[in-house]
Amino acid sequence: MLEQRRILLIVAGGIAAVKVPDLIRRLRERGAKVRCILTKGGANFVTPLTLAALSGDKVYTDLFDLKDESEMGHIRLSREADIILVAPATADIMAKMAHGLADDLATTALLATDKPVMIAPSMNVMMWTHPATQANLATLQSRQINIVGPGAGDLACGEVGDGRMAEVPDIIAALNRFFQKGNRQGPLARRRALVTSGPTYEPIDPVRYIANRSSGKQGHAIAAALIAQGCDVTLISGPTHEPVPDGVTLVKIETAEQMLKAAQAALPVDIAVCAAAVGDWTVENPAPSKIKKGAKPPTVKLAQNPDILATLSKPGSKRPRLVVGFAAETNNLIKNAKAKRAAKQCDWIVANDVGTGTGTFGGDHNTVHLITADGVEDWPSMRKQAVADRLAQRIALALNGKPQS
Ligand code: C5P
């Protein structure tokens, strides 16, 4: 997968830069062509000479080196690559990327590029979990930037937790997955889909939130089934414990507003499947600090959340060709689901009964009815993965010229 791939490797200033020589070696063993940009901070951990020797190419270090600019400007540098990999990606470079700052060669190349970007974050656990870094991460994810790691473990600063740069084999695997996408086979090859999955969390204050019991099982299974049909899938997911299906581009969100933004950023797509249990309401004014327990309970004022399915279904140039929604109902399942299809203007509704005792929420099985323009199909009870496979096959049939029956 990496044979002849051109990787522009940006090495920023973190201790994990010491893993970069090994990364370059392993990439070149697999046939990749590696060219490096070394930031000023990165040069504290690894020398340009080491990178030049291992990559077999010139190492670019300074935006204002006029000779480099005449040889190869930052724009050409950023375009003559199949992917830009930032490893290690420090909190600083992530913040600069999120905000569009360009004060050195690395950040200028990142802003000027029209190529895909992958980052391997590496930093202290407090820096990683800081809301500022997490907000920057969400921004980068909403722009389809690929993220690999970080992992948990001993950190160079002596603390333990999330923030360790992904190991070299994990970075190689992520690059392989990335390039595999462009080579997918199957009836949905060269099609793009977005899938929403899981619950949303709506904050009341920094420690409390309103959520629901969605496990994300069905949505994640649909993402995996679409991948199996060769589709390029962006999975936009609320917090879940489900493993991330191989090959998806995952965008992690918490609130409905973030899910909508991520969905819109993923457009244009051929297919949208909205399987997330999006909270209907958000808290109008979440408290900036923890609400203290007082004599009386506080009043929480709710506000309407955006409807992602209805927004995506609106006629317009960016409307996906096929929009599929779910209807989780406890009674009058078919009648309510049909009304939902009309109200939201989506093409299909997968209706499922989530009443007490059905075990649908969090369970492995689902009994669904597919509601299309032509009527209702009752599918037998099956595993969520089987529902997902059948749905993905139906989607492939619909998009490949057969009538949407
Ligand atoms: O209106 P209701 O929540 O029952 O509709 C369910 C369908 O609408 C699901 O496909 C769900 O993913 C989608 N939905 C959405 N945004 C919302 C509410 C629901 O995309 N705010």
Summarize this structure briefly:
With 405 residues, the chain is of the alpha/beta class. The chain has helices at residues 20-29, 48-55, 66-71, 74-79, 91-99, 105-112, 125-129, 131-142, 168-181, 217-228, 256-266, 308-313, 333-344, 384-399, and strands at 6-11, 33-38, 59-60, 83-89, 117-121, 146-147, 151-154, 160-164, 192-197, 202-203, 209-210, 232-237, 249-252, 271-274, 281-283, 302-304, 322-329, 348-353, 365-366, 368-372, 375-378, 382-383. The structure holds cytidine-5'-monophosphate.
Describe the fold and architecture.
With 405 residues, the chain is α/β, with parallel strands linked by helices. It folds into 2 domains: 6-182, 3-Layer(aba) Sandwich (Rossmann fold); 192-399, Rossmann fold (3-Layer(aba) Sandwich). Helices cover 33% and strands 23% of the residues. It has 14 helices and 22 strands. It has helices at 20-29, 48-55, 66-71, 74-79, 91-99, 105-112, 125-129, 131-142, 168-181, 217-228, 256-266, 308-313, 333-344, 384-399; strands spanning 6-11, 33-38, 59-60, 83-89, 117-121, 146-147, 151-154, 160-164, 192-197, 202-203, 209-210, 232-237, 249-252, 271-274, 281-283, 302-304, 322-329, 348-353, 365-366, 368-372, 375-378, 382-383. The strands form 6 sheets. It has an 8-stranded mixed beta sheet with strand order 13-12-9-14-17-18-20-21, with helices on both faces. A hairpin with a 2-residue loop joins strand 20 (368-372) and strand 21 (375-378). Helix 1 (20-29) runs parallel beside helix 2 (48-55). The model has no long low-confidence stretch (mean pLDDT 90). Cytidine-5'-monophosphate is lined by residues 196, 256, 274-276, 278, 305, 307-309, 325-327, 340. Cytidine-5'-monophosphate (C5P) binds next to helix 12 and strand 17.
